[in-house]
Amino acid sequence: MRLIPREEKFYDLFEELANKIEEGCKVFLEMVEKYEYSPPKIAKLKELEHEADVITHRTYEKMHKTFLTPLDREDIYDLVNKMDSILDMIEAAAARMILYKVKKPTKVIIDQARILQEAIQKVKFIVHALRDMKNAKMIIDACVEINTLENEGDIILRTAMTDLFEHEKDAIELIKWKEIFERIEEAIDVCEDVSNTVEGIVLKHG
Length: 206
Fold this sequence. Notes:
Elements lengths: L8 H26 L4 H27 L7 H27 L7 H23 L6 H32 L3 H35 L1
Helix pairs in contact: 1-2, 1-3, 1-4, 2-3, 3-6, 4-5, 4-6, 5-6
């Protein structure tokens, strides 16, 4: 039995942030699959990104006001900071597609977005499971799956870059696509960063 009760509100905040990230990815996937680059979609993504920022800062504030946190403070900071970065990267990729007036999403972007969605669903799972360390085995297994998805994303990016530099003759178009591809891959990479942080927490506390 604990002499001092743990502050459980942190898990509510982690889960709320994970839900926002999943919602943002869903909007982004709809954009690229249906070629719906409308101002309302971008506005919705921006709104979700702002809401995620608010949750992140609420977590920081609570961390500094709480005597006994359920996890080490550096782990809490690392976790929410990286989770927030996922949505930042999604919003940045979508904004560039509008800014650069992308005519039509390529198969590469759709493939990347689908991998990102899978990775984010698993991020949501491990974050929700973190509340109970009895879930340690399931969390570790899901972290391995996120790492596998990140490797798949790397392969898609490398193939896309090779094709881009071989066939795109317009240097400006090349730069545009390169930046968009890399932003989406960064979002997938940060999903792996989140899984690494969660895995470290589980190994420490499980």
